[in-house]
Specification:
With 74 residues, this protein is α+β, with helices and mostly antiparallel strands. The protein has helices at 18-29, 55-64, and strands spanning 5-13, 34-40, 45-51, 68-73. Helix content is 30%, strand content 39%. A four-stranded antiparallel β-sheet has the order 2-3-1-4.
Length: 74
């Protein structure tokens, strides 16, 4: 696992309002390895900054909230 801080963008489908956006940001930011989260309703993406997080970490959290995880974006 890489220990340097990194950024990644993921597709998260189903966010329809500011409550959805805030719900995703709040719950992803609770992961100890996440430094910041920015969800975008228009593009249906989240931008994450942190260390040692995995795509599986993000997927599990997003799906536990009832949203569809679309994977990592380039």
């Amino acid at each position: 696992m890489d220990t340097k801080e990194n950024f990644a963008r993921f597709s998260v489908q189903g966010m329809e309002c500011n409550h959805c956006k805030n719900n995703v940001e709040l719950n992803l930011s609770k992961l100890p390895q996440i430094k910041s989260v920015e969800a975008d309703l228009i593009t249906q993406t989240v931008k994450i900054e942190g260390k040692n997080f995995t795509e599986e970490d993000i997927k599990n959290t997003v799906e536990s909230l009832g949203y569809k995880f679309g994977g990592k974006l380039s």
